[in-house]
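The instructor's notes for this session suggest beginning with a concrete chain rather than abstract definitions. Hand out the sequence below and ask the class to guess, before any prediction is shown, which regions might be ordered.
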Amino acid sequence: MTAEELQSLIQQGLACEHIELQGDGRHWFATIVSAEFDGLNLVQRQRKVYATLGNRMQTDEVHALSMKTHTPAEWQAQ
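After discussion, reveal the predicted structure:
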């Protein structure tokens, strides 16, 4: 899977203000900024992102996805 394909999948299921991806096609690191994370804890945010991938984690299209998730306010504060 390419970075563009992964980004498209995430953005189809989650309104992102900013997304950065780094990886080798199977192992990925993402920085994602979305207002949809407002009021959610870390686990809830990660579940929201994983949900955008559907079964691609189980089928090994995406072997690993590490992420930092931020609300727009958290991103601005950095």
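Then share the key points. The chain has one domain: 3-77. Helices lie at 3-13, 42-52, 72-77.
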